[in-house]
Design brief:
The complex is a heterodimer of chains A (438) and B (124). Chain A is built from 13 helices and 7 strands. In chain A, the strands form 2 sheets. A 5-stranded mixed β-sheet of chain A has the order 2-4-5-7-6. Chain A is rod-shaped, with a radius of gyration of 40 Å. In chain A, a hairpin with a 5-residue loop joins strand 4 (336-345) and strand 5 (351-359). Chain A folds into 3 domains: 11-183, no CATH class; 199-268; 269-438, 2-Layer Sandwich (Heat Shock Protein 90). In chain A, 57% of the residues lie in helices and 11% in strands. Chain B has 124 residues and is an alpha/beta fold. Chain B has a single domain, classed as Rossmann fold (3-Layer(aba) Sandwich), CATH 3.40.50. Chain B has helices spanning 12-24, 35-45, 61-70, 110-123, and strands at 4-8, 28-32, 49-53, 79-83, 102-105. In chain B, strands 2-1-3-4-5 form a 5-stranded parallel β-sheet, sandwiched between helices. Chain B starts with a strand and ends with a helix. The chains are: A alpha+beta (438), B alpha/beta (124).
Chain lengths: 438, 124
C-alpha cells in the first residue's frame, strides 16, 4: 500500500528556518550599516562588504552546499564562517564598544536547531572565544572598571545565548511535533483513501468511518433518551416523546446498516455457503428491540430440509433484516408475526428456499401491493418506514438469483414471500455450511 | 456482593449512560476511556465482566482483548463487545483464542445489553 508521506521532522526544515532568519537579519544589517555610515565608530564602506559577504556566503551555502555537507564536519562551516564575519563586523563597528555582538546569537540559534548538545556547546564556546578576541590586545590593559564592563557584557551575551538556545530548542521540538502529527494524519488519511478505493479493509473505509460516527451519535441520543425514561417514570406525555426518539434512533440504525452495503462491488462481498435459517435468526435478533418495545410475538416454523445457499451472508442478512423490520413496523402493538420456511423447486429446476413473513398489519390494497417494493412505496407508503429497505432487500435477492413478492394470506393478512436458490446437493449428503456469525 | 463490570469506551456519554443503567441494575461499575487504561483497570479492578468498544484510542479493542486473553489473570473474564461499526462481528473476535462472549451493535437498548450480561453472568 502506498501512501503520501509528509516530510519527516528532519534537519531539512531547520536548514530552511536558518536560511530565512539569516536572510532577514543580513538585509537588516546592510540597511543599518548604510544608515549609520556617518557614525564615527563605523568603518564605512568596509562594514557593508562584511555584511554582503555574510549574506552571500549564507545564500550560497543554503542554495548549493548544504545538501552535500549535511553529514560531514563541513556542516559546521556556517558557524565557523559566520563567527569570523561577525567578529570582523564588530571590529568595523567600534570593537569592544560595538553593540553588534548580539549577532553571535544567530549562529548559536542555528547550532541549537541543527546540531546535538556537543555541537551546541562547541559552537557557543567558539562564539565566546571570538567575542573575547575582539578585545584582543586591550584585554590586558583594562582597568578595574573596564574589566567590570567586559564581564557585564560577556555575562549578558551568555545569558542571551542561553535564552536563544532555549527558544531554538522549543522551536525545534514544536516543529518536530507538528511534523510528526502531520505525518500521522496523512498516513491515516492515505490509508483510509486507499482502503476506500481498493476496498481492502471495509471496516476502515471512509464510508465505514462515517457510518461509525453516525451510529455513535445515535447511541448517545438513545442512551440519553433511556436515561431520561429511567429518571422520569410515570410522566406519560414525556415517555411518549422519548419513545418517539427511540423509534427514530432505531430507524436511523436501520438506515446506517443499509448504507453500509450500498455501492459495494461483488469482489468486496464474496459469496460462501451459509445457513439461511441462521441468517433469519440473526435478522430477528436485530429486530428484538423493536419487537419488545411493541410487545410483538413472533412465531417461527422452519423446514427441516437443507437451507444452505451460496450467498454473501452480510447482504442476505441485511435483506432479511429489512423484510422483518418492515413486518415489525407494519404490525401494531401486541400484534403477531409469523415466519415460515420450506423447500421449493428453484427457477432453474434446482433446489430452492422459500420464506413467508406474515405481518399483523392492515391488509394492503391492490395499488399498495403493486408499489410495495418501490422506493418509498412499502412501509413508507403506510407512513412508517424509511422507504428504501424493501427496495434494497429485493435488489439484493435478485443479485443472488432470488425474488420477493407480496401476496394475500389467510384471514386477509399480508404475506411477503422470499425465494432464494439453495446449494445443489446431488449426493444427497448433508451440506456442510458455515453459520454466519451473529 | 454486587457483580463488577468494567466499561471501556472512548465516548464519555456512552460510558456515563451505561454506568447509570448498570448501577441501577445493581452492578458495581468502573470505566476507562482507552484500551491501555482499560487493560490496567481490568487487572486492578478484576471485574466479573467487561464491556469493550472496538475503536478506542491508544490501544484498540482487538488488541486489548488479545492482551486479556493472553493474561492468565484476566483470561476467564467474559467480554461483551459493543461497536458502532456496521456488519457482522469481525472474524478476529470469533477465533477460539480471541473469542468474545457477546457482540452488540450501537445504538442498543439498555435492556438488550442487560439481558446479555445476565445470561453470561448466570452461566459462569
Amino acid at each position: 500500500m502506498t501512501t503520501a508521506r509528509a516530510t519527516p521532522p528532519s534537519a531539512h526544515s531547520f536548514w530552511e528556518l536558518k536560511s530565512q532568519y539569516e536572510t532577514v537579519f543580513s538585509i537588516f544589517l546592510l540597511v543599518l550599516a548604510f544608515l549609520c555610515r556617518r557614525d564615527s565608530s563605523i568603518v564605512y564602506p568596509d562594514i557593508v562588504y562584511v555584511f554582503v559577504a555574510f549574506l552571500g556566503f549564507n545564500f550560497l551555502f543554503d542554495r548549493y552546499l548544504k545538501q552535500r555537507v549535511q553529514a560531514s564536519p563541513l556542516a559546521y562551516s556556517p558557524i565557523f564562517v559566520n563567527g569570523i564575519l561577525i567578529t570582523w563586523a564588530l571590529r568595523f563597528s567600534g570593537g569592544p564598544s560595538s553593540y553588534l555582538w548580539v549577532m553571535y546569537l544567530l549562529p548559536i540559534f542555528t547550532a541549537c536547531l541543527l546540531y546535538d548538545r556537543r555541537g551546541v556547546f562547541l559552537s557557543t564556546g567558539y562564539m565566546l572565544a571570538l567575542y573575547t578576541s575582539v578585545y584582543g590586545d586591550e584585554l590586558w590593559d583594562l582597568d578595574a572598571g573596564e574589566w567590570l564592563q567586559f564581564f557585564g557584557k560577556t555575562s549578558l551575551l551568555v545569558l542571551s545565548a542561553a535564552v536563544t538556545a532555549r527558544l531554538a530548542v522549543s522551536e525545534r521540538a514544536l516543529r518536530a511535533s507538528v511534523s510528526a502529527q502531520r505525518r500521522d494524519y496523512e498516513d491515516s488519511l492515505g490509508r483510509l483513501l486507499t482502503n476506500a478505493s481498493k476496498g481492502e479493509e471495509p471496516g476502515t473505509s471512509l464510508k465505514a468511518l462515517a457510518i461509525h460516527e453516525a451510529n455513535s451519535a445515535l447511541a448517545i441520543i438513545l442512551g440519553s433518551s433511556q436515561l431520561l425514561q429511567m429518571q422520569l417514570p410515570g410522566d406519560v406525555a414525556k415517555e411518549e416523546d422519548l419513545r418517539r426518539i427511540d423509534s427514530s434512533v432505531r430507524l436511523g440504525k436501520f438506515l446506517m446498516q443499509n448504507l453500509a452495503i450500498l455501492g459495494d462491488s461483488e469482489a468486496e462481498r464474496p459469496r460462501q455457503p451459509v445457513s439461511l435459517h441462521g441468517l433469519i435468526e440473526e435478522g430477528l435478533e436485530e429486530c428484538r428491540g423493536e419487537l419488545r418495545s411493541k410487545k410483538i410475538v413472533v412465531g417461527t416454523a422452519f423446514a427441516a430440509s437443507s437451507d444452505a445457499a451460496l450467498v454473501n451472508p452480510q447482504l442476505i442478512r441485511q435483506a432479511f433484516i429489512n423484510f422483518l423490520f418492515a413486518a415489525v413496523v407494519a404490525t401494531p402493538e401486541r400484534g403477531r408475526i409469523f415466519v415460515r420456511t420450506r423447500s421449493v423447486a428453484g427457477d432453474n429446476n434446482g433446489p430452492g428456499f422459500e420464506m413467508d413473513i406474515e405481518d399483523g398489519g392492515e391488509p394492503l390494497g391492490e395499488e399498495a401491493k403493486s408499489r410495495f417494493f418501490d422506493p418509498y412505496g412499502g412501509t413508507s407508503g403506510r407512513g412508517k418506514g424509511a422507504g428504501l429497505g424493501l427496495f434494497l432487500a429485493r435488489e439484493i435477492l435478485r443479485r443472488h438469483g432470488g425474488e420477493a413478492a407480496v401476496s394475500p394470506a389467510d384471514g386477509g393478512k399480508n404475506r411477503l414471500v422470499v425465494r432464494l436458490p439453495t446449494v445443489p446437493d446431488p449426493t444427497g449428503a448433508p451440506v456442510r455450511v458455515k453459520r454466519a456469525i451473529s | 456482593m454486587p457483580k463488577k463490570i468494567l466499561v471501556i469506551d472512548d465516548n464519555k456519554e456512552t460510558v456515563m449512560s451505561l454506568n447509570f443503567a448498570l448501577e441501577k441494575a445493581g452492578y458495581q461499575v468502573d470505566y476507562a476511556y482507552d484500551g491501555q487504561e482499560g487493560y490496567l483497570k481490568a487487572i486492578e479492578f478484576m471485574p466479573d465482566l467487561i464491556i469493550l468498544d472496538i475503536m478506542l484510542p491508544v490501544m484498540d479493542g482487538f488488541t486489548m482483548n488479545r492482551h486479556l486473553k493472553e493474561n492468565p489473570q484476566t483470561r476467564h473474564i467474559p467480554v461483551v463487545v459493543i461497536t458502532a461499526k456496521s456488519g457482522s462481528m469481525p472474524p478476529l473476535l470469533d477465533r477460539p483464542e480471541m473469542k468474545v462472549d457477546a457482540f452488540l451493535r450501537k445504538p442498543f437498548f439498555f435492556n438488550e445489553i442487560l439481558t446479555k450480561i445476565r445470561d453470561i453472568l448466570r452461566e459462569i
